[in-house]
Specification:
This protein is mainly α. The protein has helices spanning 12-32, 38-45, 49-76, 79-97, 103-132, 137-163, 169-191, 227-230, 234-250, 256-261, 268-272, 274-298, 300-320, 325-340, 345-354, 359-386, 390-414. Helix 3 runs antiparallel to helix 16 (359-386).
C-alpha cells in the first residue's frame, strides 16, 4: 500500500540529492573537467594533443555502444546495483588514468570510463526523476543536470592546482578525482537510490495534489508504448535526429574561446576575454537547464521556443557584435541556454512523446545518436573553422542546426 505525503519531507528530495551527487561528481569530473588534462598530459608524453585526446573519442564511442545495454539493465535491475557499478567503473578508471605509462593505456581507461559514465550522464537523472515525481519533472531534471556545469566550475580550478604542483601533477589530479568520485558518490547510489516510490511505500511526489498535471506529465505516468513499437515510429527517428543535431550544435561552445582569440590583431580586448566567453556560456548552460526544465513543466513547445530562440539570438550577438564585449558575453550566455537543451529537452521530449512505460529503453537508444555525434562533432567544427568560411560558416551552420532541431521537435510532438 502506497502512502501520499501532504507535507514535510518527501523521500523524492533524497533522490534529487543522489542525482546531484551523480552529475556533480562522476559526470563533471570525467567530462566537464577533461580539458584541463589535454595540454599537460600530451606535453609529458611528447605527443600531439590529438594523440592523447583520442581517448575522449573512445569515451563517446563506448557510451554509444553500451547505452542500450544500460537501458535494459536499469529497467530490470535494482538501480542501486546498476548505478553503483557505473560509479565504480568511473572512479577506478579515472584513478587508473593517473597510473598510465603508455598512450594505449589511456585508451583502455577511456573505454571503461565511457562504459561507466553512459548511464550516469544520460539515463540516471531522467529515469529516477521520472519515477519519483508526478509534477515538476522538468524542473528537477534541469536542476540536477545543471550540476554537470557547476561541478566543472568547482573542480576545474582544483584539478588545475594539482596539475600545477609538479611535472607529474596531472597524475595526482587523476588519482584525487577518482577518489572523490568513489567516496562522494557511492554512498548515494548504494544507500539512497531507489527505483520507485513503491520501494519506500510512497506515491510519487505531487500525486496527492489537485490532480492537475504538467504538460510534460500528460503521458508521464505508467502509460506509454514499448521500445520495439516506438522504434518503428517516425517520431522516434525525429527525436534521434534531434538528439544528434542538438549535440552537434552544442559543440560550437568549445570553439568560442578560439573565436574570441581570432580578434587578437583587431580587437585585443576581445581576445583577452576568451576565457570569460567560455565561462559565460557555461553559466548560461547551468542557468538554462533549470529554466528550461521549469518552462517544460508548463509547456514543452515553450521550452523548445525558449531554447532555440536563445541560441539564435546568442549566435547573432556573437557574430555581428563581437567588438561590444558586453554583447559578446551576453551572446555566449544565451548560447549556453540552447546548449542546455541537449540533456534537458531531449529526455523531456522522449517522455512527452512516448510516455514512461518503457522510457529508459527508448531514451537510451535516442541517446546513442548523441554519443556518436559527440565523438565526431569537435573534428567536424575544427574543419569548418579552418576552412575558407571560417567562423562565419560555423555560425551559419549553427543556425541551420537549430532550425532543424526546432522542426524535428515539433514534428515528434505532432506524431505522438
Amino acid at each position: 500500500m502506497t502512502q501520499t505525503k501532504s507535507g514535510g519531507f518527501h523521500y523524492a528530495y533524497a533522490i534529487v540529492a543522489a542525482c546531484i551527487a551523480i552529475t556533480c561528481l562522476p559526470c563533471a569530473l570525467v567530462l566537464s573537467c577533461a580539458g584541463i588534462f589535454f595540454t599537460p598530459v600530451s606535453a609529458y608524453f611528447g605527443v600531439p594533443k590529438a594523440t592523447f585526446t583520442l581517448y575522449f573519442s573512445i569515451v563517446n564511442v563506448a557510451m554509444m555502444v553500451t547505452l542500450p545495454v544500460w537501458g535494459k539493465l536499469l529497467s530490470k535491475l535494482d538501480a542501486r546495483v546498476a548505478l553503483s557499478a557505473a560509479v565504480a567503473l568511473c572512479g577506478a578508471s579515472c584513478a587508473c588514468m593517473g597510473l598510465c605509462q603508455e598512450m594505449w593505456q589511456f585508451y583502455v581507461c577511456g573505454a571503461f570510463i565511457g562504459l561507466g559514465v553512459a548511464p550516469l550522464i544520460y539515463l540516471a537523472v531522467p529515469t529516477l526523476i521520472n519515477a519519483w515525481y508526478a509534477k515538476r519533472v522538468g524542473f528537477f531534471v534541469g536542476l540536477c543536470m545543471a550540476f554537470t556545469g557547476i561541478g566543472g566550475v568547482i573542480f576545474n580550478p582544483i584539478g588545475t592546482a594539482f596539475i600545477s604542483s609538479g611535472p607529474e601533477g596531472w597524475r595526482t589530479a587523476y588519482l584525487v578525482f577518482g577518489a572523490i568520485i568513489l567516496v562522494g558518490t557511492l554512498p548515494f547510489t548504494l544507500l539512497v537510490v531507489r527505483n520507485s516510490p513503491a520501494d519506500k511505500g510512497l506515491a510519487p511526489f505531487g500525486s496527492d495534489e489537485d490532480g492537475s498535471k504538467d504538460e510534460g506529465a500528460e503521458q508521464g505516468a505508467a502509460d506509454g508504448i514499448a521500445a520495439e513499437q516506438a522504434m518503428r515510429m517516425p517520431a522516434f527517428f525525429a527525436l534521434a535526429a534531434f538528439c544528434g543535431v542538438i549535440t552537434l550544435n552544442q559543440t560550437i561552445y568549445q570553439f568560442l574561446p578560439s573565436y574570441a582569440l581570432s580578434f587578437a590583431d583587431t580587437l585585443p580586448q576581445v581576445a583577452a576575454a576568451s576565457g570569460v566567453v567560455a565561462s559565460a556560456a557555461m553559466a548560461g548552460q547551468a542557468v538554462g537547464k533549470i529554466i528550461l526544465g521549469a518552462v517544460n513543466d508548463k509547456s514543452v513547445k515553450a521550452g523548445i521556443a525558449l531554447g532555440i530562440g536563445s541560441g539564435v539570438v546568442g549566435v547573432t550577438l556573437m557574430w555581428l557584435a563581437p567588438g561590444a564585449l558586453a554583447l559578446l558575453l551576453a551572446g555566449a550566455f544565451l548560447f549556453g541556454v540552447v546548449y542546455a537543451m541537449t540533456t534537458v529537452q531531449t529526455p523531456l521530449l522522449v517522455r512527452t512523446v512516448f510516455g514512461s512505460a518503457d522510457y529508459t529503453n527508448i531514451y537510451s537508444r535516442v541517446s546513442m545518436v548523441g554519443s556518436l555525434m559527440s565523438a565526431v562533432a569537435a573534428v567536424f567544427w575544427g574543419f569548418v573553422c579552418d576552412s575558407a568560411g571560417g567562423y562565419a560558416l560555423m555560425f551559419i551552420l549553427g543556425y541551420a542546426c537549430m532550425a532543424f532541431c526546432a522542426a524535428a521537435a515539433i514534428f515528434s510532438l505532432k506524431k505522438r
